[in-house]
Amino acid sequence: MSWVRITIPENIPLREGRAVRVGGEEIAVFNLGGRFLAVENRCPHKGGPLADGIVSGGTVVCPLHNWKICLENGAVTKPAGESCGVATYATRLEDGVIWIELRGEQEAAA
Question: Which CATH class is domain 2-109?
């Protein structure tokens, strides 16, 4: 596993997301107020761009069909009963920079 430098916090407004391409993956990074969470930027329903969704608490609502995704664990919370989800990525804020941890095959593509 390795950490990849993403951006400074000021580039991601509060309660919004931004898409970044890292290691061949498109990842959505969200600012939850001093805490940053990252998930795969593709809704499991129809592939909507989660970075463009509305953030509410610890979830994001897909802009295409209103599916709600938990930013903590990537699980679909709406509609209820869906067993699919999205990949999540560990983040850290160090020296004024947001970092994302890549795993296995993602590292090879970075």
Answer: mainly beta
